[in-house]
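Q: What structure does this chain adopt?
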Amino acid sequence: AISNTGKITVKDINPSATYTLLSNGNARPADIIQFEAIKKENDCELKWTTENELNCKDYSVERSNDNIHFEPINTVNAKNNSQNLYQHSDNSLPDGKYFYRIKIKSLSGAEFYSETRVIEIGSLVRNQEKLEVNSVYPNPFSNKFTISYTTNYDAVSRFKLISMSGQTLFTSEKMDKAGENTFEYTDELRLPPGYYLLNVISGTQTFTSKIYKNAY
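A:
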């Protein structure tokens, strides 16, 4: 374990107020604002978009067959720019289900993980599944927003709202028929203003986007 000590001098504080001291020694070195796993026949194309990269060393693409035991299949050096797009192709995959995640590593050695994406390959898998998100409106939102999306198959659709630190704040699901569908989110949690990640999972397809919450 590493122990750090130091001296902090604070002037002109309110003695009746409560203060919290934070350390950024293990601060997240980047935010993944979009992560896609796109199935193309027996290949999987992985794309992820990042922002706020600072002291980020690299990204490791990890794969699993059971969503428990992951192994690295590729490592990409971080660019440490304000916003970046990375991609990797996992080719000639045998039939089966594959789970992917991105490990973010900082220069100090701290590690963070993205959400997991899943694809299925095989003769019994619906190779032509398609999810199109037509709109997320309004964005920014104050109290509620509506997602309009289209699928070409019947499936259970799942919805998540995630903080920029990776904490899942809201989850819901509904059964959809092929065609145009909608889902309305109402802010019963009274979330504080700021950016959040919206995640839509339908069948083997996923969609992730950034959304901004206004003050009431």
